[in-house]
Amino acid sequence: MKEESRRDSVATPRLGEVDGFRLTFTDAAAWGDAIIYTAAAEDSPDAVRDGPVIGSAIGVIRCGEARWCLVRNADGSRYAGKIEGIQPREGGRAWVVIDRDEPGTPSELSEVVLEGGW
């Protein structure tokens, strides 16, 4: 009889909170020896229905350690859009997809600058 593989546990990372609202994954991509991801905090009654976006974050998981920062506008204010996709680029930049959660409104493709020690 062939022995079946078994998982004893599933890791559920805690990504943090923004103003008391839990950050949850929206996308991830391979990035060298790490994984770059996006997450959003949303005032929503459940995982299916949309609600007002409290903040979006970009983070990195490397060697089992995760860290993140809130996405900010050029003036330093908190970005209020919902980032739901990411593609890293050379030179400390990444393409992100922004979903307005409004039927009939297309998603937007934007570029972000990743400053600091990523």
Keywords:
three-stranded antiparallel beta sheet; 0% helix; globular; five-stranded antiparallel beta sheet; 118 residues; mainly beta
Structural overview:
This protein has 118 residues and is mainly beta. It has no helices and eight strands. The chain has strands at residues 17-18, 21-31, 34-42, 53-62, 65-70, 82-89, 93-99, 108-113. Strands 1-2-3-4-5 form a five-stranded antiparallel sheet, with no helix packed on it. It is globular. The termini are far apart. The relative contact order is 0.18. The mean pLDDT is 88.
Strand order of the largest sheet: 1-2-3-4-5
How confident overall, as mean pLDDT?
Answer: 88
Radius of gyration: 16 Å
Helix content: under 10%
How many DSSP-defined strands?
8
**Biggest pleated-sheet summary:** 5 strands, antiparallel
Shape: globular
What structural class do helix, strand and pairing data support?
mainly beta
Question: H/E order of the elements?
Answer: EEEEEEEE
Strand residue percentage: over 45%
Distance between the termini: 47 Å
| Contiguous helical run count | 0
Low-confidence stretches: none
What layout of secondary structure does this protein have?
Blueprint (H helix, E strand, L loop, with lengths): L16 E2 L2 E11 L2 E9 L10 E10 L2 E6 L11 E8 L3 E7 L8 E6 L5
Antiparallel strand pairs: 1-2, 2-3, 3-4, 4-5, 6-7, 7-8
